[in-house]
């Protein structure tokens, strides 16, 4: 084997040589790894399950910012990851929503900001965004399943390795200091395309990270027009694997421009990622690519509009997202319920009271929402003046305080007014400098009606908007209170628990607990023990998952407190794999479709296609965990995406997408590539998968082959005659199989006429001319004959200088005596095939002294080090070798030299540029290996 000499990076290489193999590591949660973690070149979840990312990019910041319905549609492909395009202008609230919606669909969110694309000076600003208090809080909230891509394609092609390492090191440390401990994904520079900078700097960045939790992302926008090709993809990904780097292909498409030079080797990217266990995230679900709309996989973001490019990437390729992606068990649960926003203090006289408004933006922003006790709903007026809301307290009340929770569209100037009759109004409070947020205003007033009169808007493009209004007086202090006022309930059987509420009834008596129009049953739905009320988990299980129940504690006097309970269910979902399949309605191509239910224990109550129920045994069968939908039922589905829903006894359900098409199937041939050697002729046998079609002809260009002579057909097997193949010229030939329906199939044949080389048994033969003996080298002729043997410019004479003795050539002692140097190189020219070389080594000649010194380092499974060869004589040495005797070790890599293996030795020879050692000169080469190389290893320098 040979290895190019990279002296400048030997030190870095030695680091990887001694790095242990951690491919089998099983991760576990700790304070710095609450979610996913990187070990070696692999990603693990917090349950220790290895996860390889296969999914899609989705541009959210410019289109559907909440990812709805795109995430639901992407989930149908079976993807386990979505890389989300984001902006530093997006809010923490929006970020929380988009991450939540992605996780709801059981896919891993990779969030990236696009503002730094190609702009190195933006990197600190991107980190500023991630470390903002509200943004960091959102990231930490989602840390169990989140990956943070610091910036999309930051930097152009001018960024040096030193810049890349220094600036990203600072970015990593700032993000960790902010308490963010998710995996950090780092794109290459040069608009993400530079994998070499990731290979050079990635190891240092991993070491800089206190969490050692780094992913390296290359964007393979590698079209032919920029000098790229499929072999480069293979080489670079394999090199990354050899370096044990945690590389992901974060973006790639099928083309950069719609011409031949714009083509990207995307099929090779997908195949190599699959074979090397490297994740890929394809660009992009769409729509939104402008002007390169050919990179949109869908027309409107729905699964039904997947185009040919999207279908191949997501579904039909052997290496598609559907065929590769596996969602880890940790993602196959629903999100826990989110704690409701805590309402205003108890005793709010306005709670639940009727409201009138001058205007509303829409029915979703009506005035009634300012007294519903929910801080996520609001009133919003139109962008006109005047604008006010009026609360009817039901009776005249003494008022001491008003609390207003404004939305961003607040009134910079407003009045609080009171009235007994909703006609005559008195000003209780006026401000000309409202700053928004929550205003708490002490007043001295009384009245039945309270009006918030918005006099001037903060922004004239907006209306006025209020989340909630609280009105308090002496009566408020008499109202009963409860603790807590917000709670969550998880229907997961392992986590279900009663809710215990402490009450402060004061002088009030509890009459009932109500949920809307439903009154809970005392003793069954809840129990009372003094001032402690327990809400039964059995009752809570009857509430709707995903909703927030507002339980009103109905006391006989004053304001009733409200308990807001968010209902969730983190029970593991029953997953189906694959997530989708294609069914061809073409009669000859119809086949059953199967999927696997990934659950140890399940019971199916029904399977539905839309509203139609399938009949067991007739339309489907269940065999263990495998469900098979029969083709007779599938044939009735309409063309397009059809959702098959599986319902289970535990009230969960799972979906499977059947993409129904109607196309004449293409016949396939195996193999599609073959070789024919003219000097070792043999028939070619090709297997056909006909799918109901028939073979009509085989053509080579415009010439049709003759059945029975050039080829024969036996069922689905075609035999192409070696007599026909022998007529083909050396090179690449294409035979086209033409069928009665569907596309033609193409067989590519590489025709060769390989002239076998003769071989010498030994590369070096020793002789001593003083003994009078001849020298012999054994020859494997392989059908050739010796044409001539050359010694420099001298041509040896057969019969005088050498003779041919069956399978050997014997050199006469008279010729050997003319050789004065220690080594003489002869060139053997045969009748055909390549020339061969032989070194005749004169053992009687004086040999310059060569010495070897070594530096060996070892670890548990191997060793590394360097050799130095020094010429201690007074004359130059033109050629030399080092022979190391084998003894329980293996040399696996070498730098600045070549190594060949014999039965007993490793034979190391210098590369051309350092083979000539002048007197006193020395040269060095590095190596690594497996096993243990002893300090007293045996070696010979020749």
From TrEMBL:
- Domain CBM2 residue range list: 843-942
Q: Which residues form the F5/8 type C domain?
A: 337-474
Protein known as: cellulase
Q: What class of enzyme is it?
A: hydrolase
An example of a Pfam family matching this protein is Cellulase
Q: Which InterPro entries match?
A: Carbo-bd_X2 (IPR005102), CBD2 (IPR001919), CBM2/CBM3_carb-bd_dom_sf (IPR008965), CBM2_carb-bd_dom_sf (IPR012291), FA58C (IPR000421), Galactose-bd-like_sf (IPR008979), GH (IPR017853), Glyco_hydro_5 (IPR001547)
Specify the taxonomic lineage: Bacteria, Bacillati, Bacillota, Clostridia, Lachnospirales
Q: Provide this UniProt record's keywords sorted from A to Z.
A: Carbohydrate metabolism, Cellulose degradation, Glycosidase, Hydrolase, Polysaccharide degradation, Signal
Q: EC annotation?
A: 3.2.1.4
What's a Gene Ontology MF term here? cellulase activity
Q: Name one GO biological process term.
A: cellulose catabolic process
- Superkingdom in the source lineage: Bacteria
Stretch forming the signal peptide: 1-27
Reactions mediated catalytically: Endohydrolysis of (1->4)-beta-D-glucosidic linkages in cellulose, lichenin and cereal beta-D-glucans
